[in-house]
Amino acid sequence: MRVLVTGSAGHLGEALMRSLPAAGHEAIGLDLLASPFTDAVGTITDRALVDDYLRGVDGVIHAATLHKPHVATHRQQDFVDTNIAGTLALLEAAVAAGVGRFVFTSTTSAFGAALTPATGAPAAWVTEAVAPVPRNIYGVTKVAAEDLCELVHRRDGLPCVVLRTSRFFPEEHDNRAMRQSFADANAKANEFLFRRVDLEDVVQAHLLALERAPALGFDRYIVSATTPFRPEDAGRLRRDAAAVLAARCPEYEAVYARLGWRMFEAVDRVYVNDKARAALGWQPAYDFARVLARLDRGEAFASELSRLVGAKGYHAEAFDDGPYPVD
Asked: How many domains in the chain?
């Protein structure tokens, strides 16, 4: 299959450009930034450029986006132009070129305020049935782009699969209190329980979505590591997450004690990947059990692909307080 990857210089884009050829596909990278994985330097709103690189393309993976870290440094109109207008332009160009499948990389941030339970309420058990309540322009534009994918599918018949990915970036935590309270690896290991996924698993979900898009037509899927928690844990997760974890994964205590690590006091949401595993045949390899086993052996818990791609950052400039200024 000949596949156009937008955002090819980014975390996911580079990982896809590395992985598609190994899976037997031809990959073409498009990005605003020149990189070893970018064939076309330009914007997805440049119709002439996009039309040129869509010739003979069988599928599109649209990973290019302005991210949450850009909220404090970019205008809201920039988000509209890139995430909404850019996605629509790419969808329309794909239809005109006769592309057979389209995979859109979205985000669990689309759920927004739906992820923050009221005081005393159980942790949010987040499936695709939860209605998004975007909390910033990033979430608003990603949800709008998802809706455009659905619209173009219904109107023009383009098979479109939306993947709402949880955290997979290796950069340090954006919350200062979290950075001060937890070692970076400790915080990331904890997140595999409820809100993080390894880059290798994200790539595999995209490859499966690309393969199965014609049969699926249109749908949205949460892409996050498989949680050991259960719906009945939701109440106690808000009060004593460590006790819940000790019941579900008792082996964690000895490993964490040896490392001087600890679990978060509370968990406010759990992303559930059941639908993606069932519909895509996705089998994420990196869950908390695997993270724990690697830690027990003294190994890095991130996949080789994640380590190879590494940290990229989101801005050319550095900031005094954290990886980026949070809005």
From this structure: 1
